[in-house]
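Collaborator request, handled under Task 6.
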Amino acid sequence: MFLPKAWLEKFIEIDVPIKEFSDLITNTGNHVESIISRDQYAEGVVVGKILSVEPHPNADRLVVCQIDVGEKQVQIATGATNVFEGAYVPVALDGAHLAGDVIIKTSELRGVESQGMMCSLEELGFDLSVIPKESRDGIHILPEAHEPGTPIREVLELDQEVIEFEITPNRPDCLSVAGMAIEAAAALDRPVVLPEIHVTENSDTAMEDVVAGIALESPHARRFYSRLLTDVVIEPSPQWLQNDLMGAGIRPINNIVDLTNYAMLEYGQPLHAYDLSTLAEERILVREAREGETLTTLDGVERKLTTDDLLICDGAGPIGLAGVMGGLDSEITSNTRTVLLEGAAFDDGHIRKTSKRLGLRTEASSRFERGLSADIPQKAVDRVCELAVAIGAAKVAKGAMDVYPKVEEPWTVDATVSQINGLLGTEIAPEAMERYLTLLHVAVERNGDELHCTIPTFRRDLTIWQDLAEEVGRVYGFQNIEPQPLSGELTRGGKPKYRKVEQRAKEILLGAGFDEFMTYSFMGPGAFDRLGIPKDHPLRDAVTLINPLGEEYSVMRTTLLPNLFDILVKNINVKNPSAYGFEFGNVFSKETDDEGLPREYKKLAVGYYGPEDFYYLKDLLEKTLKVLGIEGLSYRAHDSLPFFHKYRAADVSYNGEHLGYFGELHPALLEKYGFKERAYLCELDFTAIVNHYDSSITYSPIPRFPGMERDLALVVDLKVPAAEIESVIRSRGDELLAEAKVVDVYSGTGVAEGKKSVTVSLLFRSPVRTLKDEEIQPLVQGILEDAEKQLGATLR
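Structure tokens returned to the collaborator:
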């Protein structure tokens, strides 16, 4: 932000050298990027009044001017076409030094002596971007009379520096002269009172008789304040107003447009002026754009809009892109006689999205997108009216229109002196804190150690007591705070429970020869298709991304298996004979948490292809979970996911809680993707595993007495689960049965159709004696009887 020192001094006197002031205000957090001195090309340049303009006797395109420069009259030959008798112009006399290292000398042009040069603003060092259009291609004509011989640096205020500030995004109030005046007051430890605005309604017209009305149809429009200017005379602005605008980096256009820019820079509130004669039905409507609607903005570009954009409309259609740029059809022209002024407040996020999408960043959008107070529009519009009357640009109609659905009120923040000193590491007195905050226009009620602060609406960045501590610290001066060594209590770090369980499980799986995989949390609908998951399966009910990287990353994963399967397929495609891997990762549900975000669940997935069979995977899971203190798993046939083999997939549970499922992939799926070996996938609910984790270890001595083994081959129906057979055996096995496990399942030759042979290995052992065969035989016989009675089993 460029801030002319002369403009700032209209609010507060700066009685210290500019370098010292820059250091003081930088120390309060308002970083000064540079100090720009503009008078290096003004030495020897004065105001001149053109007394006469005569044709050059020897050149058709030159004229000879007699000019009064105060103490003398000089003759200057020029090719400028905009000079006329009575004009006041900058005159560079003999010896003057202009921009571009041009030294002016008395010379002869086509036989006529020229004793200097009349200057353009560019020749005086002004950047072309801030020079008014009418002054770009000729001599700069001063808009009002001045005493001939007056140094031009005084007229154009070139003897006043311009300060360039770096403004942080959370301080839109500092993008204004008034805001920086408050900051300057804090830096100089001197209060500032912002001037009162007085509007003189000197027109015979009442606004309500001319303007049909103003309506806000969008909740993103927080306020619309408007006044009407009549009897408008469009002409160049006074030199003082042009000086301030050009110093701030704004090009003067005409008096009405310049006044809206002037008030914007002064109070930080973007304004817009509409030619009332161009508004259909003399009414204003603020609404959201319709999809595909278009608007040609002031820069002449036709913009295609979406429903995310906010429009200013008249009775016929859009006339402006709210908070960004006005429309071309309602701009101020030399024929304008009645002007409708707009001062509005819009949601900052809405304006930011529109500006970013269109690639259109303006002085208005850069302010709105930071978040402006809804209290400022009235001040800024009234300031335009005050100045319009003062410079004779227009009259102000009686009354105003103000649509303000929800009035913005100041809020309070409480803090204590001890809190602030504790955070800053200072011993600032309560009186000093109160003074610092008051300088920043924060109203403070102090009661002993307590500070009850009322925050002005333009300081939307102050919401918690720590914000107040920062304000106190920066006005006190962070450079004045004595650095202290770091202090605190040493604490021993550690991993949370789920991390410890995860690490233990990783060690087991890595020790078994598996690699750890890591895949994206995003996936595409095609991943479900590759595994053949049905269209109506709950796993497909995934959270959809609004702005995905592509179709393959358009949803949040609900399972780890598709990504794991894709890795196995990639290994098949590169001819790897086998692949073993696992992944710990989060899956996402459409259910939301307290913050409205999708719920996340931790899963463990295991996958491989190679010579190992289904029971290898079952044994791996049992060993892994056993190390985590989870024993006594139960199984049942899995039938909900069609990508598993019909007879080689199982759900696994513990104490009645479902932990997950595992199984061999369906032969048709293996054939489709070129698997030569059988492949297996498993997915477990790792959150449930962590909940059941038991780190305690029970030690028992090595058995002193030998055990006795018996293998039973039981023929049962195909539908009888092996787990049910184990359960029947354990219930009858007595305390002498140390172990019972299924070691083989066979169906085929030698076994009746619809039947299967399940081989169960039994281990009997006593901790106090060696068992005899006659002790074991009744137990085995009882097991066979129960199996026959409960399962219809026969001994093969």
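The cover message to the collaborator said: "The CA atoms of residues 533 and 641 lie 7 Å apart. The longest helix spans residues 773-791. Please let us know whether this matches your experimental observations."
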